[in-house]
């Protein structure tokens, strides 16, 4: 069987189902979308003949749960909604990808442990094509990863158009001709491409959450609109990596016109209830020296430049709420002020270990755990091998598998605020899709099991044993993967 993530309950039978008898998925018309996607994904396995694969509605099952029954003459997937049907079909898809002639008969009952099972792709540091993003989304859905956090802008590039702010893509997207004939670096996603990706993902029950990092990591914005900075420039879209002193000017009301236009654009392109506002690694040197920022401090009765970030965060969260969206921010936004405490509806994504997430839960805020200390930064190297590509740390497969979004010291009421977890692929050192695949797999498989499978069913040795066969599926899907774990 070797299914990843491991199902909650599985009962194997002694009989088998002949793959040559597999029909197209059919059944309850409310599952039309899920059946059509499966029929496309698994078209190579489908033969014309009597109906053998049926999808049925079972309203008694919980959201995202499914039951899969495979018998010699019939396969049935049952669920209350489309997500459950899709995941049941993906379990069947895994079996088909690793079996040549027949698949084992079985009875599976399955459901997720956490609702947020996420993956972040940084498309600012390096630009990735639409076909590659779709390939990754499809692979994520095979593993029940249901959130695609799309990091769309940073110091190194702005990746989507905003009405009334054309320079963001004209200059901020950093389109440069490389010293290679016919090749251009950088770019942006058109509104049509974004809608296409969102639709593709939704059909696979993957929700796309856009991120605009504010008020720091904004070199691409400042290079496009220098008047939004404290000094007026000159600024440039960075080709270096790190944390830069120039940030949006907290004393300039025009930044809120910019935020409004950006949020209006995101609200029109992304149906998700969430928008990630970043908020990490903001340096305050420019605010401390800027007369406009100092005036803002006085107006808002704040004492230190760093407190201006809590004022901006408060406004950002409010502006998104007015557009029906909930803000997510990196754990730095917990560093608020008495005058502008973090709004109750803001969600914390804890990346500097779990401490930020634990503090957020104690303060009654919802949390997504993504600690760089426990394997969730998959731009880090797979191993200590000096020949391995990757960033500043080591994130072995076992580390991300064993990452648990819950902390032992959490009270029951605090643990209930933890939505789940996420892996992040920052791409400073990852210039193309093939390397992004290599850094992601099989670590995404480990993350998926850690977030889906009941805690008492998790076992790293068992996972490693199943992964040996699962790698054949990844190969069949043409996903480059690290193999020396």
Task: Explain what this protein looks like in three dimensions.
It is a single chain. This protein has helices spanning 32-41, 82-98, 130-142, 167-170, 191-203, 219-224, 254-269, 285-289, 291-299, 307-322, 355-362, 397-402, 412-415, 433-440, 443-452, 460-476; strands spanning 9-18, 25-27, 53-57, 66-71, 74-79, 102-110, 116-122, 147-151, 153-154, 157-158, 176-177, 184-185, 207-211, 274-276, 326-330, 347-350, 367-369, 418-425. It has 485 residues and is an alpha/beta fold. It has two domains: 9-110, Chitobiase, domain 2 (2-Layer Sandwich); 116-476, Glycosidases (TIM Barrel). The strands form four sheets. Strands 13-8-7-18-17-16-15-14 form an eight-stranded parallel beta sheet. It has a six-stranded mixed beta sheet with strand order 1-6-4-5-3-2, with helices on one face. Strand 4 (66-71) and strand 5 form a beta hairpin. The two termini are 21 Å apart. The mean pLDDT is 96.
